[in-house]
Amino acid sequence: MSKYILKFEKADSVKYVSHLDLIRVFDRAMRRAQLPMGYSQGFNPHPLMTFAHPLGVGVSSIGELVEITTAEHLQEKEFLNRLQEFMPVGFKLIDIKEIEGKNNFARLTSADYKINIEGKFPESDLVKSFNKLKEILIDKKTKSGIKETDIRPFILSFEGNMGVYMARLKTGAENLKPELFVKALEKYIPDFSPEWVQILRVQLNDGEGNSLF
Amino acid sequence: MNEYMTKKLDSVLPLVQKPARYIGGELNSIIKNADKITSRFAFCFPDVYEVGMSHLGMKILYHQLNRREDTWVERVFTPWDDMEMQMKENNIPLYGLESRDPLKEFDFVGFTLQYELSYSNILNMLKMADIPIYSKDRGENDPLICAGGPCAYNGEPIADFIDFFLLGEGEEIWEEVLDAYALHKKNGGSKKDFLLKIAREIQGIYVPSFYDVSYNNDGTVKEISINTEGVPEKIRKRIIVDMDKVYYPDAFVVPFMDIVHNRVMLEIFRGCIRGCRFCQAGMIYRPVREKSAENLCLAGENLISSTGYEEMSLSSLSTSDYTQFEKLANGLIDMAEKKKVSLSLPSLRIDNMSLDILKKVQTVRKSGLTFAPEAGTQRLRDVLNKGVTQEDILRSANMVFCEGWSNVKLYFMMGLPTETDEDIVGIARTGYSVLDCFKKCDSPKKANRINITVSVSSFVPKPFTPFQWEAQNPMEELVRKQQLLKDTIKTRAITYNYHMSKVSCLEGVFARGDRRLSKVIELACEKGCKFDGWDEFFKYDAWMEAFCEAGLEPEFYSRRKREFSEVLPWDMVDIGVTKAFLQRECEKAYRGETTPNCREKCSGCGAKSFGGGVCYE
Ligand code: SF4
After folding, report:
1. From the CB of B584, is ligand 1 less than 6 Å away?
2. How far apart, in whole angstroms, are the C-alpha atoms of residue A207 and residue B4?
3. Contact B192, B225 (CB under 8 A)
4. Whose CA is nearest to atom 3 of ligand 1?
5. What is the DSSP string of B381-448?
6. Closest C-alpha among A118, A111, A133 to residue A206
7. Pocket test for ligand 1, best of B239, B579, B614 (most atoms within 8 A of CB)
8. Dist. CA A117–CA A179, nearest whole Å
9. Which of A35, A145, B65, B444 is buried deepest, with most CB atoms within 10 A?
10. What whole-number distance in Å separates Cα of residue B447 and Cα of residue B450?
């Protein structure tokens, strides 16, 4: 068995393909490509495949990561090119590397998002006023149900202007979804009402802010 | 892809459940340049994506007709009500999944009629597409609205909405319609010219507006007459005579999300040799025509390669009646092993097949065995012409108990012609004798526990069956019988399932309905009726109000026993099987006489006139 991490893009309509459905998409592409997918043992074998920090439905990405275990060793570039041929439109494989070990995604603790917004904006600097806030309370899903939570610690950085913004948010066990981040903006910034929002995940980072690729 | 619609959709899709239903772009879906297309065809399945995408007929026609350079077939399903609301609020018209262009821009909008309970969805979809629902109100620039599928054999309840019906199997007739349309577009002419041409020249085309229906004082049909010269008095269904020559797709659209039947499906034959008297499919698809095992194995392998599916299943009315079953099953089992694919074989009668094959099939291992005795006593089974005896069931049950299986499902119907309480109690007795059989089994492999499920549905008389003249049981009677059966089953080993629903009353009305029901459907749709096959949507009271306002009684259609001499609303349709045969079968049913299956002895049903299939084996 060999392990690889692939970086891929989820563009256009396939951003509506849910995390659960992604497993099927990759498994079937591996089958069509006749690449030796690794499967778990047992009565109901499932493909050995893990995705890093699931994206919400409707969020696109140019920095998704999947770890695939194959039954045989493969040449990295050949694997990537062969699989790409059999992926549905909208999924672009960007990079690949062979890895070892377990829980390779655990050290990825933040994600960068590019957020495009159309709608009504305030006169004042939205980013400045938001960054000044000491506490940002918002209803958030937690293990014990929906609770009002201070999400300030989950926002690592936020910058931009004119409806185009970059945000670095925590991900992993303690995480903030970008959709919720936009909700918080809406709640705390007066005279701001977004009508059309597009979110793109750019990359996942480790504790030092470095990405795997 | 339509950019304007895409942007609009981006604002609503994050707000609805399962947005993958509405995006298209799945593997093997087909994108073309709309500017170069003569016929744009929106193939509509009037139910939600997961259901419609599981339908084999749609897959076949989609891939077949998209081979034509002049045609682009797109898929359309009924948006779930959350999406419907969003579309209404944001002025998004119903669109084709491939191009995202509004339905109004298409040449054909075609509905497949798989069950009567989808009629309200058809109207709702036309409304969402901003297309006038009545044929008479549509102009030259509106698409042609057409319909096919099993319910089209009596499409009368929706006759006022549909420009033309296609009767029978679609592969050849659609090619002819599209050829005619290309010519029509080149030469010019009105919609009516086109309809007249196809009605006159293409077998299987039924244009309801070319036929008038008059009624007697008691509400029965007096006469069905032609009002336009040259259209056929009787419209004869179409079939594919040689199943080995007909197109079968080498790719299926593979959905992103999970759907009801998410696998490769191989159609092994059409029709059924058995002739159960309640079964419409068994009559309308006659005669039986098989595909060869070699072709099927090849098709299976191709489809697995092109889709990447991990599961494959066979499709037919009665899998084990396939004459080359052993050969096919062994071929597929080998291939499945090689390709790491699991195989499921539905509707098996285990009495006539080898246990060896059964053991190799994964889904059987998981879900257990299924029998459909349909009735609880031999007498009533003979009335139905259901060629299963109690001994058959027990012999098979014993066989599988010895192998360690522990799940058995038994399917029955209630409200059948000539049924008495004895027959109802007989359902419970059948369950108990299977239980006894388990107790007596002394194989070392026998399971510790047994699970017998008895599932009962209510019988709905269907047109083109020997029971087409029968009355449906009133609701109160079904409730009483249901209680009786419940009281008779006193063991935990038997689980009793009864889906008691008012829905089957409605199904009964539309199955044998006439044109006057179009008004009822229109009114019900205005009252918000939709997805009637889904319990959470079904509005019985609204439907009853609609009947009342239209001045029609549902009981007239469902609960009335017809005379053999009555003119039936679907008498202008010729399915090959003759009315005389159906009447003969009905009379035999009353006498409790059975009819041999097509392979034992031909009973002269009339389907031989198509010149192929089992009639000439
Ligand atoms: S004509 Fe005879 S063999 Fe052919 S379908 Fe009818 S009963 Fe069966």
Report:
1. no
2. 41
3. no
4. B615
5. HHHHT----HHHHHHHHHHHHHTT--EEEEEEEES-TT--HHHHHHHHHHHHHHHHHHHH---TT--S
6. A111
7. B614
8. 12
9. B65
10. 7
Amino acid at B321: D
Q: Residue B605 corresponds to which tokens in the numbers above?
A: 């049903």
Give B443's Cβ-side CA count (13 Å radius): 16
Residues B513 and B568: their CA atoms lie apart, in Å, by: 9
Model confidence at B350: pLDDT above 60: no
* CA gap B515, A180 in Å, rounded: 53
Write down all domains in chain B, each with its CATH number in brackets: 3-217 (3.40.50.280)
Q: What count of residues does chain A have?
A: 213
Q: Are strands B573-574 and B235-236 parallel, antiparallel or unpaired?
A: parallel
Report CB contact under 8 Å: A14, B25: yes
Which of A12, A29, A89 is facing B308, going by the closest CB pair? A29
Q: Which atom of ligand 1 is nearest to the CA of B577?
A: 6
Lowest average pLDDT, out of B56-70, B102-116, B361-375, B453-467, goes to B361-375
Full set of structural domains in chain A with CATH:
2-99 (3.30.70.580), 108-206 (3.30.70)
B104 lines ligand 1 (CB under 6 A): no
pLDDT tens per residue across span B556-604: 999 999 999 999 999 999 999 999 999 999 999 999 999 999 999 999 9
pTM of the model: 0.94
Contact B308 A18 (CB under 8 A): no
Rg of chain A, C-alpha, whole Å = 19
- Which of helix, strand or coil describes residue B359? helix
% of chain A surpassing 70 pLDDT: 100
> Is residue B442 pLDDT above 90, yes or no?
no
User: pLDDT digit string (tens) for B196-228?
Assistant: 999 999 999 999 999 999 999 999 999 999 999
A136-140, B119-123, B508-512: range with lowest mean pLDDT: A136-140
Interface residues from chain A to B (CB-CB < 8 Å): 12-14, 16-18, 21, 24-25, 27-32, 39, 57-58, 86, 88-90, 179, 195-196, 198
Mean pLDDT (chain B) is 93
Contacts of B307 in chain A (CB under 8 A): 28, 32
Q: Is the CB of B286 under 6 A from ligand 1?
A: yes
Residue B308 in contact with partner chain A when CB distance is under 8 A: yes
Res B360 pLDDT > 70: no
Q: What is the model's pLDDT at position B88? A: 97
